[in-house]
Design brief:
Blueprint (H helix, E strand, L loop, with lengths): L3 E7 L5 H14 L5 E8 L4 H13 L3 E6 L23 H4 L5 E5 L3 E3 L4 H4 L8 E3 L4 H4 L3 H6 L14 E5 H7 L1 H12 L7 H8 L4 E3 L6 E2 L3 H5 L6 H8 L3 E3 L16 H8 L13 H26 L12
Parallel strand pairs: 1-2, 1-4, 2-3, 6-8, 9-10
Antiparallel strand pairs: 4-7, 5-10, 6-7
Length: 319
C-alpha cells in the first residue's frame, strides 16, 4: 500500500500506555491519505495490555502486531539509566524480514504532524535518517564523551529515539552482531547505551533529519528565553513535528510542568488507560506552581542579561 507508514516501538508492560498515547497523537495529526501499521517489540507485556493496544490501533484504522523477543538475544549488553528494552530496536532488521524500512519511535514523545514527510525521506543509500542530539547543541560534558568515539568528519551525534531505518542495508550490515562486537570491546564508553554504539557503527551512513522531527524538550526553553540559536533550532521550536521528552522529566509525571504536556493527557484520555488522566492533586498543583515561579525568574533574568548585553548563544548552523 503506497500510503502505508510502518512504525515500530519497543516497550515493557509499564510503557504500553505511553505507546498508546503516541499512537493517538499520530492519528490526531495524520493526513487524510495516511495509513499506519504498528509493530510492538517486547520481552513481555500482558495479554490485557496487548488487547488494549490493539484497540487503540484499530480505532485509528491501523493494524498492529506484537513481536515477543527472546531476552537472550540481548544478553551481555551494558545498561546504565535505561532498561534492556532500549536495545530491542537492534532486532528490527531480523524481526521484520519482509520490510525494507521502518520508522522507530521511542514511547516518551508526542507526534505533532503527519509523519509522511519524515517517512518519505530518501535513505536509499544510507542505513538510517536521524536528527542531531540536543547535547551537541547545548554543549556541556558530553562533548568530551563524544570525542572518545573518533567520529569521521561530518558525522554529528544523533539521537536514537526517532530513527527511519533502512532495514535492507542494516540486514546486510548484520547490525546486531556488529553492535555486540563493538559493545564487548567498548562497554566503558557506552554512557548512552546502544545510542552510542549506533552512532559509531552507523557513522557516515546516516541522513540528517531536520530537528523538528525529534525536538528534544530541553531545546525549547532556550528559544523561549531569547537565547541566540541556529535557524534550524528556531524553526523546530516554532513548528515541531515530534516533541521528545529525553530526560527523566516525562510528560506523565504530573509534578513537572512541561511544554505540550496537556496534549499527553488529552491523548491518554482517549485510550483504555484514560483513568490515569485524572485531575491533579493539591500537592502536585503546588509543586507545579513552584516550577512556574522558577520559570518566571528565569525569564526575568534572561531579559536582564539581554539588556546588559550578556545574551546566551547556542547558535550552531554546522552541517
Amino acid at each position: 500500500m503506497a500510503n502505508l507508514i510502518s512504525i515500530a516501538f519497543a516497550c515493557d508492560d509499564l510503557y504500553t500506555k505511553h505507546v498508546a498515547v503516541v499512537m493517538q497523537s499520530i492519528f490526531a495529526n495524520a493526513a487524510q491519505e495516511d495509513r499506519h501499521e504498528f509493530h510492538v517489540l517486547t520481552m513481555g507485556i500482558t495479554p490485557e495490555s496487548e488487547m488494549r493496544l490493539v484497540e487503540v490501533a484499530t480505532s485509528g484504522g491501523a493494524t498492529m502486531l506484537v513481536h515477543r523477543v527472546d531476552p537472550q538475544l540481548l544478553a551481555g549488553f551494558t545498561v546504565t539509566y535505561v532498561t534492556l528494552d532500549s536495545y530491542i530496536r537492534l532486532l528490527l532488521p531480523d524481526v521484520l524480514p519482509n520490510h525494507d524500512k521502518v520508522l522507530y519511535l521511542d514511547a516518551d514523545l508526542i507526534v505533532m504532524d503527519s509523519l509522511r514527510e519524515l517517512w518519505e525521506t530518501n535513505i536509499d543509500n544510507f542505513a538510517a535518517a536521524a536528527a542531531r542530539d540536543g547535547m551537541t547543541i547545548t554543549k556541556g560534558p558530553d562533548l568530551e564523551h563524544f570525542e572518545a568515539f573518533n567520529f569521521p568528519d561530518g558525522h554529528v551525534y544523533f539521537n536514537a529515539g526517532v530513527l527511519l531505518l533502512n532495514l535492507k542495508v542494516l540486514r546486510e550490515m548484520q547490525l546486531l552482531e556488529r553492535v555486540k562486537v563493538w559493545a564487548e570491546k567498548n562497554s566503558h564508553l557506552m554512557k548512552h547505551n546502544d545510542q552510542d554504539a549506533l552512532n559509531v557503527i552507523l557513522a557516515g551512513k546516516v541522513v540528517r533529519c531536520h530537528l523538528r522531527w525529534n525536538l528534544q524538550a530541553p531545546l525549547i526553553a532556550p528559544i523561549q528565553l531569547g537565547w541566540k540559536c541556529s535557524t534550524e533550532h528556531v524553526q523546530a521550536v516554532l513548528d515541531p513535528g515530534i516533541i521528545h521528552y529525553v530526560t527523566n522529566r516525562k510528560p506523565w509525571r504530573k509534578e513537572f510542568k512541561l511544554p505540550y504536556q496537556s496534549l499527553y493527557f488529552k491523548y491518554l484520555a482517549q485510550t483504555p488507560w484514560k483513568e490515569d488522566a485524572n485531575p491533579f492533586t493539591t500537592d502536585i498543583v503546588w509543586q507545579r506552581c513552584q516550577e512556574e515561579l522558577e520559570w518566571g525568574r528565569k525569564v526575568v533574568m534572561s531579559k536582564i542579561r539581554r539588556l546588559i548585553g550578556r545574551r546566551f548563544v547556542l547558535s550552531d548552523d554546522s552541517n
